[in-house]
């Protein structure tokens, strides 16, 4: 959200609070006056008293002892009602700030998580570069891969900033290209974890109604999650297929599966499974996948989970749907 939109939202909130306090206070004052008039009317009587020039005149007499308890009660009730109005106004006033802080916290945590995997890939690639350099091997390919990793970091950050501002890139992704980019990012991490990475080519011409960098981010998150939960010597696979007007991406692993009690919350923010001995997971990856998929009318779910492995299914509409 831009600063101009933030200011406009704050102005609307201020106007709403002002109208709430002013309108509610006016209503309370009018009600108190009406009640006072009714009480005075029923607590008074007319007496005939001598007039100034002789004769008698009618005078309205009000018994103070009768109306004083009512006046005190009305005053106390008014104070309580005004306090409730002030409380409601304060909640309304801080609501935009609360939402802004929530969005800021979500962006910082999501950005930290989303950049963590590409940075880990860069670190792994640097280690490969150092090792090949010491051994006197060619390093041109590794340098090119490092450049790709740097471009990936830039693209991921740009995509997240666009989402934070309520904008989006062109929602058309060549599935094969996006999957290949995700594979390139995860490959050094899978190699370091001694996990085999098997990525099948997507159907020819397959495209999804989602920005390419976003689709690549989702595939990276799913692959990273699978590598995290696959023991050394295991396999992580990714396959793509068409189903009606949807593109289906399946990511499978040969890990221990998801315990039944965790199945309902693995896509919740900060939900984490058992520690695997790998770098600590903060339980954000699958939640980010779910939020991004739903933003583009897609979904993600656990298709199967057994003690021999888990398969996650990402379904997105095709670009022509």
Automatic annotation (TrEMBL):
The keyword Transmembrane applies. It catalyses: ATP + protein L-histidine = ADP + protein N-phospho-L-histidine. It is found in: Cell membrane. PROSITE patterns: HIS_KIN (PS50109). SUPFAM superfamilies: ATPase domain of HSP90 chaperone/DNA topoisomerase II/histidine kinase, Homodimeric domain of signal transducing histidine kinase. CDD domains: HATPase, HisKA. Residues 110-320 form the Histidine kinase domain. Gene3D superfamilies: 1.10.287.130, Histidine kinase-like ATPase, C-terminal domain (3.30.565.10). PANTHER family: SENSOR HISTIDINE KINASE TRCS (PTHR45436:SF5), SENSOR HISTIDINE KINASE YKOH (PTHR45436). This is histidine kinase. It comes from Gulosibacter sediminis. The lineage of its organism: Bacteria, Bacillati, Actinomycetota, Actinomycetes, Micrococcales.
